[in-house]
Amino acid sequence: MRRQPKVAADERGMMLIMAGLGLVAFMSATMLALDVGMFMAARSQAQNAADAGALAGATTLYYNDWNNRSPSGPAVQNAIAAATHSANHVMSTNVSVYASDVTFPTPERVQVTVHRTGARDNPLLPFIAPMFGIDTVDLGATAIAEASPANAMTCVKPFTIPDKWDERQSPPWDPSDTFDVVDNQKNPLAVPDVYTPRGPGYTGYSALDFGTTVVIKGANGNNIYPSIYFPYSMAGVTGAAAYEWNIENCNTTMMEWDQRLLAEPGNMSGPTRAGVLDLIAQDPGAYWDGTRVVSTKSPSPRVAPIPVFDPQFYDVGKQNGRYADFKVANYIGIFIKRMVGNDVEAIIVPVGGVLKGGAAPVANAVPKAIVLVQ
To answer: In total, how many domains does the chain have?
Structure first.
């Protein structure tokens, strides 16, 4: 009698099954190693592209045209250009950024979203996943940058002008006005001029003043005119040589709001003129084109911050017999255009500031620090 083989007990061929299962596991692990690794790298690159776009947008918004948030405006277009620059490719391919992907959640913030998606014909192409029916992968990233009010300043020039006030004697405020709250006998005026410090109702300089031409003259007497300047010493160092050096160079002393300024003794018109002319000579081709400073240097040394002082604080000090008692109310940027005799002709422009040590930004600060907030 012929015996039937014991098929159920025959284990031949199991190795092929195990090998097949192992191959599937190996391919799955390979897909995980290659594709997931690629996705993580792509995600990081996409975030870099979004960050670059948001920073460029916020920088352009503040320095070029604060009032233009249109799709064709410089803030939107520079954000798109930075995000799609070849340096910000995602896996060697441009991200997609439309004007509608650049938004402004608040007046100070620029949000940019970048895409590599099938809907925009630029999805990611995985290596192994197509074997499992996954042919493309969509990816995006979002960043928000802000022109944040600064809380500290550096490279500040050593002369100060009064902050703006609400002119009540001969409105509106203009360079020929004087800040008056008392008469010559120190009696309160019936309708005094009003200065409101930073906060609600602040009367001082703001982004609305960018592009305004000012002629800064040496102070004569105690009257407070918008265009007068007072020299002050920096870091406690006095004298004409130090004062002139501080105009020509960047003094890295960190300055803040509400700090007191020590008036520089003596007539500083000569050192002011010499220092300003040297500063102009460092970048003679720079000019204001009506919207921004055009220069081969970034930034032009002719763009500098100066402090503006609290006219009310100064006036009260003057009434009490203290001369040249200054308190920093804010900072503004000026582009030094030229010297006219001993007067400095300048244009009020945006200027960068510092966010120091995690302290809160200063309310109504004109200088801004460009930072990523998301």
So the answer is: 2
Q: Is the pLDDT score of 21 beyond 90? A: no
Q: pLDDT for 249-289, tens place per residue?
A: 999 999 999 999 988 888 899 999 999 999 999 999 999 99
Contact by Cβ (8 Å): 112, 102 = yes
**Separation CA 270–CA 266 (nearest Å):** 11
User: 265 and 179 in one domain?
Assistant: yes
State residue 327 phi and psi, 5-degree precision.
-125, 130
Helix%, strand%, coil% for the chain, nearest 5: 30, 25, 45
Question: Any residues with CB less than 8 A from the CB of 253 and at least 6 apart, and which?
Answer: 154, 156, 234, 235
Q: Is residue 6 part of a domain?
A: no
pLDDT over threshold 90, residue 106: yes
pLDDT tens string 351-366: 999 988 877 889 999 9
Q: Looking at the structure, do residues 201 and 349 belong to the same domain, yes or no?
A: yes
| Residues with Cβ within 8 Å of residue 312, at least 6 apart in sequence | 165, 179, 181, 195, 197
- For residue 174, give both structure tokens: 């203009």
Give the structural domain span for 190: 159-365
Kindly state the tokens that stand for 228.
Answer: 């007068």
Nearest C-alpha neighbor of 116 from the set 21, 217, 41, 219: 41
Q: Would you say 368 and 352 are in contact if contact means Cβ atoms under 8 Å apart? A: yes
Q: What is the token pair recorded at 253?
A: 């002393």
Whether 175 and 215 have beta carbons less than 8 Å apart is answered as yes
The answer on 129 and 42 residing in a single domain is yes
- Say if residue 12's pLDDT is above 70: no
